[in-house]
């Protein structure tokens, strides 16, 4: 397998990749250049410079895209998900670097350090123009209280600042215990002397700070943005810096990078760094190593640590749910090999000990199994939910947890325009998977290899007739299972076979008296 690294990645990460796969490093490529070569690669590793657009994704055969860093706004994650391409990032390795850079910018802005340095270097001894403000006792507004925001908050508390934070997704009590006061966005921006941003760039955070919100801020506020350009409307910010409403700002990030044409960087009260938040020796090694390890896991089909567009499973749970993931996929696939019809609803019902776990990965695997036989786009654990939803399929997940010590059971119930059908399965000791029912037929089937499933009216001799026909065609029967609704009533026969059953043989089986249908199943 081949990996393309299209941005500068620390060699520690590249070395790890090279131990397992072929790696090419080609940086500064245009979209067109990348589109020309991307088909040759299974994995792409980027930092923030490469824009992984829909065009590139659609042209590719990628299995995984890795971001050596946190923000994935340079990757069209929706397009990747639709195509079933896993996106992974490395969110932990640069937290300290970004938070230290934020504090450096905060202090540099408060004390006019860059301008003072430039003045002295131009041989001036000017002490009057650079009188600063102190941080102690001032309020720092922190917008976004994730890894970096929280670390900045701790550091600010250490500097004697009061921290007032806005993050609608954090638990208030949890952070208030550590002296961070939580408030709504308006309160934060109205009361803060300094405001720092640590949110991802999303549709919701794009221009979350505009002209109106700037007008609510204290006069002479100082703004720091070490998260993403685009969070603050740069035109509104420029006007506020010129009018003096905003005393100063320190920006590490810009809506368009590099911002060489931006009038912002020419203003005397703007400190600007070229997206250096994560640029420490330590952070670059951390993120390169983290992303490289996840790329390798993804290419080897193992569980990744930092998926962006796939459900996470805690490693300690993975071994427990893995056999159910495999089983659910086979159950879904069995269903759509057996039956057709326009699917409107998929219900996954869980009982027994599996209800102790998060079953979403199992549900996703069931959907993957269902979709694999009916869609042109290959379904996988990344895109299965997305593709089902796109087709208007309602997904219901139910846990019935009366006895959590009983063996785990999964029932897959599918509603189509032709009615409701189901497949049930279980996992025995030693991870042995079984399909135990198809609709109302009770069976005991190991979902492996090939099988013939035929529906017939129960009568003496019919099993032999099917068996003989297979024998005449040199198809060996490995095992047999019979499920019937009633004596001499409707029945389901499952014959495991060692060979594939060709269409013409299936047609002959269907012609046997009292056989209503026969389907060849591949597990
Ligand atoms: N300048 C640089 O070199 C670097 C910049 N970054 C940027 O910093 C951002 C934050 O990184 P982390 O703290 O590691 O991410 P994180 O995911 O730990 O934290 C993000 C926080 O933002 C919050 N959030 C999301 N939407 C919000 C909204 N609308 N309003 C308020 N809060 C919201 C989330 O609840 C979360 O707590 C990244 O997304 C990235 O864009 C990260 C590393 C380096
Ligand atoms: O790759 C870089 O240096 C930028 C880091 C960054 O912005 C991020 O991790 O979100």
UniProtKB/TrEMBL annotation:
Residues 451-523 form the ACT domain. InterPro entries: ACT-like_dom_sf (IPR045865), ACT_dom (IPR002912), ASB_dom_sf (IPR029009), D-2-hydroxyacid_DH (IPR050857), D-isomer_2_OHA_DH_cat_dom (IPR006139), D-isomer_DH_CS (IPR029753), D-isomer_DH_CS1 (IPR029752), D-isomer_DH_NAD-bd (IPR006140). It catalyses: (2R)-3-phosphoglycerate + NAD(+) = 3-phosphooxypyruvate + NADH + H(+); (R)-2-hydroxyglutarate + NAD(+) = 2-oxoglutarate + NADH + H(+). Its EC number is 1.1.1.95. One of its GO terms (biological process) is L-serine biosynthetic process. Pathway: Amino-acid biosynthesis; L-serine biosynthesis; L-serine from 3-phospho-D-glycerate: step 1/3. Belongs to the D-isomer specific 2-hydroxyacid dehydrogenase family. GO terms for molecular function: NAD binding; phosphoglycerate dehydrogenase activity. It comes from Tepidanaerobacter acetatoxydans (strain DSM 21804 / JCM 16047 / Re1). Coiled coil: none annotated. This is D-3-phosphoglycerate dehydrogenase. Keywords: Amino-acid biosynthesis, NAD, Oxidoreductase, Serine biosynthesis. Catalyzes the reversible oxidation of 3-phospho-D-glycerate to 3-phosphonooxypyruvate, the first step of the phosphorylated L-serine biosynthesis pathway. Also catalyzes the reversible oxidation of 2-hydroxyglutarate to 2-oxoglutarate.
């Amino acid at each position: 397998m081949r990996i393309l690294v299209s941005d500068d990645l620390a060699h520690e990460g590249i070395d790890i990749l090279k131990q397992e796969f072929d790696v090419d490093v080609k940086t500064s490529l245009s979209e067109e250049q990348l589109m020309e070569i991307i088909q040759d690669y299974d994995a792409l590793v980027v930092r923030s410079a490469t824009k992984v657009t829909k065009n590139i994704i659609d042209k590719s055969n990628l299995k995984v895209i890795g971001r050596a860093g946190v923000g994935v706004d340079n990757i069209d994650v929706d397009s990747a998900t639709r195509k079933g391409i896993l996106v992974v990032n490395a969110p932990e390795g640069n937290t300290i670097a970004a938070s230290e850079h934020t504090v450096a910018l905060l202090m540099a802005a408060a004390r006019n350090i860059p301008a003072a340095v430039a003045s002295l270097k131009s041989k001036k001894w000017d002490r009057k123009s650079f009188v600063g403000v102190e941080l102690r006792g001032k309020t720092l507004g922190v917008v976004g209280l994730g890894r970096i925001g929280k670390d900045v908050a701790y550091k600010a508390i250490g500097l004697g600042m009061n921290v007032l934070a806005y993050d609608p997704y954090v638990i208030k009590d949890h952070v208030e215990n550590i002296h961070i006061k939580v408030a709504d966005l308006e309160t934060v921006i109205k009361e803060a002397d300094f405001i720092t941003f640590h949110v991802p760039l999303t549709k919701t955070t794009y221009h979350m700070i505009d002209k109106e919100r700037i007008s609510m801020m204290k006069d002479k506020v100082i703004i720091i943005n070490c998260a993403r350009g685009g969070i603050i409307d740069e035109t509104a910010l420029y006007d506020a810096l010129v009018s003096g409403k905003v005393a100063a700002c320190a920006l590490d990030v810009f809506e368009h990078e590099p911002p060489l044409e931006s009038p912002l960087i020419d203003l005397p009260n703007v400190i600007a760094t070229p997206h250096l938040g994560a640029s420490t020796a330590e952070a670059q090694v951390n993120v390169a190593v983290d992303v490289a390890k996840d790329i390798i896991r993804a290419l080897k089909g193992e569980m990744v640590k930092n998926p962006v567009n796939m459900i996470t499973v805690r490693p300690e749970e993975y071994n427990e749910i893995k056999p159910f993931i495999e089983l659910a996929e086979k159950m879904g696939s069995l269903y759509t090999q057996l039956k057709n019809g326009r699917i409107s609803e998929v219900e996954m019902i869980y009982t027994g000990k599996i209800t102790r776990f998060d079953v979403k990965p199992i549900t996703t695997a069931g959907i993957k199994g269902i979709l694999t036989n009916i869609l042109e786009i290959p379904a996988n654990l990344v895109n299965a939910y997305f593709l089902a939803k796109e087709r208007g399929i309602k997904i219901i997940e139910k846990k019935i947890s009366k006895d959590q010590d009983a063996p785990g059971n999964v029932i897959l119930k599918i509603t189509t325009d032709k009615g409701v059908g189901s497949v049930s399965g279980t996992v025995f000791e030693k991870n042995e998977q079984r399909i135990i029912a198809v609709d109302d037929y009770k069976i005991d089937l190991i979902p492996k290899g090939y099988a013939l499933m035929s529906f017939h009216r129960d009568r003496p001799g019919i099993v032999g007739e099917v068996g003989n026909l297979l024998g005449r065609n040199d198809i060996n029967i490995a095992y047999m299972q019979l499920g019937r609704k009633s004596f001499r009533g409707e029945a389901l026969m499952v014959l495991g076979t060692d060979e594939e059953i060709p269409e013409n043989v299936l047609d002959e089986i269907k012609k046997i008296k009292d056989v209503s249908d026969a389907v060849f199943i591949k597990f």
